[in-house]
Design a protein that fits this description.
The complex is a heterodimer of chains A (616) and B (406).
Chain A lengths: L3 H32 L6 H16 L6 H25 L11 H21 L10 H4 L1 E4 L2 E4 H23 L1 H11 L1 H6 L4 H23 L9 H16 L4 H21 L4 H15 L27 H20 L2 H24 L10 H18 L3 H23 L4 H21 L1 H4 L5 E2 L10 H24 L1 H11 L1 H6 L4 H27 L1 E2 L6 H14 L6 H19 L3 H15 L3 H13 L3
Antiparallel strand pairs in A: 1-2, 3-4
Helix pairs in contact in A: 1-6, 1-9, 1-10, 1-11, 2-3, 2-4, 2-9, 2-10, 3-9, 4-25, 6-7, 7-9, 10-11, 10-12, 12-17, 14-19, 14-22, 14-23, 14-24, 15-16, 15-17, 15-22, 16-22, 19-22, 20-22, 23-24, 23-26, 24-25, 24-26
Chain B lengths: L1 H13 L2 H4 L11 E7 L5 H20 L8 E7 L4 H13 L5 E4 L3 H14 L3 E3 L16 E3 L4 H12 L6 E5 L4 H17 L4 E6 L8 H10 L4 E4 L3 H14 L6 E8 L1 H4 L11 E4 L8 H14 L5 H19 L6 H8 L3 E4 L2 E4 L11 E9 L2 E10 L8 H7 L5
Classes of the chains: A mainly alpha (616), B alpha/beta (406).
Chain lengths: 616, 406
């Protein structure tokens, strides 16, 4: 058993972790609270903060004053970057559908990775620590870094500063009012633009502070953007979106969990955090201190009913299908391989769109069902030596069963909380695939999942994929056009009214969730056979984000959106990857450009143009 | 769109001496095409020096007339760190670009995916960096060769040194995934076999890229170990070393650390490099063999930078491939080419090496030595080169570890 001293040191370590989490998460929660933007680029801002801080502080005298000045200057730089990001990009897409801003911030994430690499190079930059940064204090015989003690002290100070800022200043009152009811604040004549820009600048400065304070203990490196942003999301959601005290409380919870977790379950620290997040969300659907969302959206925001495609679009679809059927006769094997991937991406995106668009349930972890399908096929082949038809059948079934089990927790939530619960599940699934090497093969994956000899050739496999993905996509569309689909949209637009007229809301949503999982699972099974192997990357956050990008890029509001989005995104990615080493920069810029030009997504934008051209 | 990608690839190949040289009239003078895939955007700290390395080797070989009168051309692709993309690109290289063989890989899963692909399509694949033992053992197959010493070899080399230490109480810290788990398993199995009096009293498994270094250092210290075996690398290592230094974790304890002597991982530690760690790595500044001096001079002249471990891997990979191709006598049918590589001998900046026929692993070794501080930078001292062949298990054991044919 650990002694009292050890527990004290672990407590301090946990506090230091909590402080580091809080600096980043507080910025994220403040930004979300006011602007409702899920800022995926928050980790990139932290990374920029670390790199800027490294450049500034290593040029200043190695004294506490030099460090402080460097940190303040970095925060200023980040505030300017944050303000520019808000003015140049996000301000233009506030009116877009919910979560669409996520797409814009993800474009920033991609661009930031290449920009930082171009400016600072590929090697990790560790700040040279002068003696005062290496000093320690003795805590019951054990050494504890003095700098970490300083970080711990800064935690309540920053919290107090923010609290005073939000409760004791006019600016803070306006921010809180805007958090409560944006439209009302605007109606009272408050300049929202200034408010939003300043909030974004504050959030970015806090992200920068988090980056600078990570320097003495760690380094500025190219991977820190994504590791930071997932941790920050967990804290913000566990605490309750937009709640500063919640973020502080959740930081403490997660910080202690990390510090003590490694003593109890050293092999499962990653999953532990997400398990705790899932438990918190199941017990408290709005986080620890979050408040339930206010009134339901006014009826003016109800989205247009998605009707069966007009005749012209139907003909276009039929033409495309015939073209796709004939594709193997004029495409080379590589182009055919890309086409096969596009088809699978299409089903994957359509399944996410099914629950996200008409279902109103956005998911940050949709790759979980894709991955479960892929692993189910792989296990069927490896353990049962199952023939391919059985392997392909197992995929959607396994994904549907898991989705049904898990979905019963998910459908109790809504909005970003729901999305984050799906993320928690996907991260746990990923951790199992990546870390439980004896069962899943870990990152080495499962090999040798090749298709039956009849479908081994690229043409045959393409046709099989075309058949199954087209059937799957059409099946999802058919369901949306059925009474089930209308009920689903009814629930999305007004849950209470739908309940009042007798719609069984939760079973309905659960069914939709399960169907979406099954379709994604089928896509995963096909992908496993197409690639001959499965890897944890299929379940990774990056793959979930791919699905989100495809749906948002195509347009949530239209039924052909995910198809267009999947084709556009996969095509763009594949081409850029082989054309340029700076593919992330170009892809990110392309995404941002599309966001600005087509705020309703590509298909939505085309649809609007189509309507405008028709005589009134 | 496919056109664009092909033209860029041609451009990349043209950057090599092969296509820049005026086309010769003889039909057999068409370059031998090597399809190369690596995680250029995902792992730039390794792959960019690696690319420099293979470009240097390519230039030298082609300047010397190529292989049996034919020049080499490399068509290079970026897999973005995803095995699924690597497989797709491999398909393009084989089917559209008609490459004679595949090469490359950094991540173990990319290596395994390419190996599986090579067996399916019956085309030779020469892996450079991927460390996993599965590549030549559990999942070993006849179309795949591998250059770098595997996780097993690296661990076995360290065990030789660790067994000499008086320490009996050991703790381990390793990233929680296949690489970290096998590195710990081999190390503890081999060390216990050599030193039955040794016990492993605690193990920490931080998630890759997510180490909570302060807590890990505390947990290790509380087990009261005499020695520590470390497998973390990159940002996790920097974080671990800093917390360990401040908290005094390494004082009065022996530390044995995998790959930490490689410039990629040693350099970021800077003036905090803990002296006296027993590490595997690459002492680029103090290795003065004629082969290495020639390599280092040429590399520094061409790139105005010092070579990293990746540079040696990239350079040696092309040398190894050239040697294998040379033994094929112009017959590049897959089966012939595959058997030509078995036993192919080649020169590397580290010295002579060959591809073992028994498991298609090269005998390229690595350096083992101690860390030290010199002018505020970490360096390797008291190092010696360990040939990969010298620590391999006996052949009978290898046959058991490699169930697949050939």
């Amino acid at each position: 058993m650990p002694g009292a001293d050890q527990i004290l040191v672990a407590l301090l370590t946990g506090l230091a972790d909590a402080a580091a989490l809080f600096f980043v998460a507080s910025g994220l929660t403040v930004i979300f609270g006011v602007t409702r933007v899920v800022n995926f680029a928050h980790g990139s801002l932290t990374m920029l903060g670390a790199y800027c801080g490294w450049s500034l502080i290593s040029r200043l005298p190695p004294t506490p004053l030099g460090f402080t000045l460097g940190a303040l200057a970095t925060m200023l730089v980040l505030a300017v970057i944050g303000a520019m990001m808000e003015i140049g990009l996000l301000r233009r897409v506030y009116r877009a559908p919910e979560l669409f801003q996520l797409l814009a911030t993800f474009g920033v994430v991609l661009m930031a990775e290449d920009i930082v690499q171009a400016l600072w190079g590929v090697e990790d930059l560790a700040l040279r620590r002068p003696p005062w940064l290496r000093a320690f204090v003795l805590v019951g015989g054990a050494r504890f870094p003095r700098f970490d003690l300083f970080v711990i002290v800064l935690f309540p100070l920053i919290f107090l500063f923010l609290w005073l800022l939000f409760t004791r200043t006019r600016w803070g009152r306006l921010v809180r009012a805007a958090t409560e009811d944006r439209d009302m604040v605007a109606a009272l004549g408050v300049d929202q633009r200034l408010l939003f820009t300043s909030v974004f600048a504050l959030g970015a400065a806090l992200a920068g502070l988090g980056g600078v304070l990570a320097l003495p203990d760690a380094s500025a490196n190219l991977g820190m953007d994504l590791t930071t942003v997932t941790d920050a999301f967990v804290v913000v959601v566990v605490g309750g979106l937009g709640s500063l005290s919640g973020a502080a409380l959740a930081s403490l919870l997660i910080g202690f969990l990390q510090a003590f977790g490694i003593m109890l379950v050293p092999k499962a620290t990653l999953a532990l955090v997400f398990v705790v997040m899932a438990v918190v969300l199941v017990l408290r659907p709005n986080g620890l201190l979050g408040r339930p969302p206010g009134r339901e959206r006014a009826s003016g925001e109800t989205q247009a009913v998605v009707r069966p495609a007009p005749r012209a679009l139907g003909l276009l679809g039929l033409g495309t299908l015939i073209l796709a059927l004939l594709a193997p006769f004029f495409l080379g094997p590589y182009a055919l391989a890309i086409a096969t991937e596009m088809l699978i991406a299409m089903l994957f995106a359509a399944s996410l769109h099914f629950m996200m668009g008409p279902g109103g349930m956005a998911s940050f972890g949709h790759a979980a069902w894709f991955g479960i399908g892929a692993y189910a096929s792989a296990f069927a082949v490896r353990l049962l030596a199952a023939p391919m038809p059985l392997g392909l059948l197992v995929a959607p079934v396994a994904a549907a069963v898991m989705a049904a089990l898990f979905g019963s927790f998910v459908v109790r939530l809504s909005g970003v909380y729901l999305a984050m619960l799906t993320l928690a599940f996907a991260e746990i699934a990923w951790a199992i695939a990546f870390q439980w090497v004896n069962v899943t093969g870990g990152d080495n994956g499962i090999l040798g999942v090749w298709p039956a000899s009849a479908f081994a050739g690229p043409r045959a496999f393409y046709w099989l994929t075309l058949l199954l993905t087209t059937l799957g996509t059409l099946w999802l569309r058919r369901i949306l056009a059925a009474p089930f689909g209308y009920a689903l949209r009814g629930v999305r637009d007004s849950r209470r009214r739908a309940e009042a007229i007798g719609v069984a809301v939760m079973p309905l949503q659960l069914t939709a969730f399960t169907l979406a999982g099954a379709a994604a699972g089928l896509a995963g099974g096909l992908y496993a056979y197409g690639k001959g192997s499965v890897f944890p990357t299929y379940i990774s956050l990056g793959h979930s984000v791919d699905a989100l990008l495809m749906v948002l890029l195509g347009g949530v509001g239209t039924i052909s959106g995910p198809i267009v989005g999947a084709l556009a995104y996969t095509g763009l990615y594949d081409v850029l990857l082989s054309v340029t080493g700076l593919w992330r920069l170009v892809l990110g810029a392309a995404i941002i450009l599309l966001v600005l030009v087509f705020p309703e997504g590509i298909a939505g934008g085309v649809f609007r143009l189509w309507q405008r051209m028709r005589p009134a | 769109m496919i056109e664009i990608s092909l033209s860029r690839r041609a451009l990349l190949a043209a950057g090599t001496a092969a296509l820049a040289a005026p086309r010769l009239a003889r039909a057999d003078a068409a370059p031998i095409r090597i399809g190369e895939i690596n995680s250029y955007s995902a792992v730039p700290a390794f792959t960019l020096p690696y690319r420099n390395g293979w470009q240097l080797a390519l230039e030298q070989i082609n300047a010397a007339g190529g292989v049996n009168g034919r020049k080499l051309a490399v068509i290079s692709d970026n897999d973005a760190g995803k095995p699924q993309d690597a497989v797709r690109l491999a398909g393009e290289l084989v089917e559209s670009d008609r490459v004679d063989l595949l090469a490359g890989g950094f991540l173990s899963n990319v290596g395994l995916a390419l190996s599986d692909f090579s067996a399916q399509k019956r085309v030779l694949y020469v892996a450079g960096e991927p460390l996993t033992d599965a590549l030549v053992w559990q999942n070993g197959q006849k179309f795949c060769y591998r250059l770098r010493p595997s996780t097993f070899v690296q661990a076995a080399i360290l065990v030789e040194e660790a067994a000499k230490l008086p320490a009996k109480r050991w703790v381990t810290v390793a990233p929680n995934y296949e690489y970290g788990q096998s590195a710990v398993k081999w190390f503890s199995d081999l060390l216990k076999a050599k030193r039955p009096d040794v016990e492993f009293v605690a193990a920490q498994w931080p998630a890759l890229g997510h180490i909570d270094a302060g807590a890990v250092a505390e947990a290790l210290a509380s087990a009261k170990p005499e020695a520590i075996y470390n497998v973390t690398f990159g940002p996790d290592l920097t974080n671990f070393v800093r917390q360990g230094n401040t908290r005094g974790l390494f004082e009065g304890r022996s530390v044995v650390s995998l790959l930490t002597g490689e410039p990629e991982y040693l350099d970021p530690l800077g003036d905090e490099t803990p002296p006296g760690w027993i590490v595997t790595g690459y002492p680029w500044a103090s290795l003065e063999t004629p082969a290495h001096v020639a390599f280092r001079t040429a590399y520094q002249k061409k790139f105005n930078d010092y070579p990293r471990m990746g540079s040696v891997v990239g350079y040696s990979l092309i040398q190894a491939i050239a040697a294998g191709l040379g033994r094929a006598n112009g017959d590049f049918a897959s089966d012939k080419l595959v058997s030509a590589f078995a036993g192919a001998e080649f020169e590397t900046p580290f010295g002579h090496a060959l591809f073992r026929a028994i498991d298609h692993q090269s005998t390229l070794g690595t350096f083992v030595g101690k860390t030290a501080l010199k002018d505020g930078k970490g360096v390797m001292v008291d190092w010696r080169y360990v040939d990969g062949a010298s620590v391999m298990p006996p052949d009978a054991e290898v046959h058991k570890l490699r169930p697949g044919a050939g």
